[in-house]
Design brief:
Blueprint lengths: L3 H4 L13 H11 L3 E5 L5 E6 H5 L10 E4 L2 E4 L3 H11 L4 H4 L1 E2 L10 H10 L4 E6 L2 E7 H14 L1
């Protein structure tokens, strides 16, 4: 069975929480990456920033839906949701736009687990962590390559 360690890119390009969003966008475009891990000064994985996180900056601020009751305005969705939207739209640094504490897999994760995460959870970039340290990254292209290599084997 194909495992994460067989697919992952071992020389991972990373950014820091202080990397500017503009620089990350350039990096993702130049390298054709969907996302990059965010590491702190100790080299610990603190987040991941993907194209979708940066595209969120281009969104218009949603106006919260409200209803009135006894001359009071009551929001229909939680206040925190709007706060997070505003924070992402105004992001200047990775720490402000990234997804903190990203889902990770270990090197022994099977391809079926990777595919399930990508399809059912909508993640296209998955950090591979071993003993608490980033050892690789898997993108949707890495998984697609298995289809091409299995065709060649037939």
């Amino acid at each position: 069975m194909i495992k994460a360690k067989d697919l992952m890119t071992r020389e991972v390009v990373t950014v820091t929480p202080d990397t500017e969003v503009y620089e990350i966008a350039k990096l993702l475009l130049e390298k054709h990456f969907n996302g990059v891990p965010v590491l702190d000064q100790k080299g610990d994985l603190v987040g991941i920033i993907c194209q979708s996180d940066l595209i969120a900056e281009q969104k218009k601020l949603p106006i919260p839906s409200v209803f009135t009751l006894l001359d009071s305005f009551i929001p229909i969705h939680p206040r925190g949701k709007t706060d997070r939207e505003v924070h992402k739209i105004a992001a200047i640094k990775a720490s402000e736009a990234m997804t903190p504490n990203p889902l990770t897999v270990g090197p022994e994760a099977g391809i079926s687990e990777l595919a399930e995460i990508m399809v059912n959870r909508g993640f296209h970039t998955i950090p591979v962590v071993e003993r608490g340290k980033l050892v690789g990254i898997i993108g949707k292209t890495d998984v697609l390559r298995t289809l091409v290599s299995s065709e060649k084997a037939d």
